[in-house]
Amino acid sequence: MTLRSLLPAIFALSLAATSATAHALDPIEGIWQWPDDGALMEIKSLSETAFTIVLLDSPDLSIKPGTEIGRAVSTPRKGSYDASISTRDALRPGAKLKSEHCVISVTDHGTLVFKPYRTGLRVNILRLFPYFRRIRPYYEDSRPDDIDGPRRISPEYPATIHPVL
Q1: pTM
Q2: What is the mean predicted confidence (pLDDT) over 79-86?
Q3: For residue 121, with 0-12 CB atoms within 10 Å meaning exposed, 13-18 middle and 19 or more buried, which class applies?
Q4: Cα 15 to Cα 7: distance, rounded to the nearest angstrom
Q5: What is the CATH number of the domain that holds 97?
């Protein structure tokens, strides 16, 4: 037997082993880069529905590469995830842990959109005064929601197959 005759068998065995240990990536999995400051983050799965968000590289030198900055859980809507992401101050050594809640959506062109939300009780102090409640300041932001966000740099969008190591 020569090596040339064994190559098809070796190739078939390696292909079978690869397909047994590979799974299709979820749309959120991969390496993402923020266009404004070049920060890199990786989103990888912990289970079928849970994901971890790890900072790979950041222009802020006080945050170590490889720091877990958040977690995400898939929602019933395809391409939408409920996430809890640590604030920049909470990632510094010795800081109190504070996280922001948001919904992450994966767009058709391979970017992430973060939509923050709040939970809890809110009290309006101005309601205690009889005439001040008629004048309420409103914050207006007409900037579209989906123009800021990281772009997928690896694997190329759409995700296909990724081997599990």
Answers
A1: 0.69
A2: 92
A3: exposed
A4: 12
A5: 2.40.128
